[in-house]
Amino acid sequence: MVDCLSECKFKNTFRISLNVRSMSASASSSSPSPVLPDKQLQQVDNVLSGIEDEHGGVIVEMSKEPMDPVIFTSLLKASMLHWKQQGKRGIWIKLPIELVSLIEPVVKEGFSYHHAEPKHLMLVHWIPETTNTLPANASHRVGIGAFVMTEKGEVLVWWQGGRVGKFPRIPGGMEVSLTGVV
Question: What is the value of pTM for the model shown?
Answer without folding.
Answer: 0.56
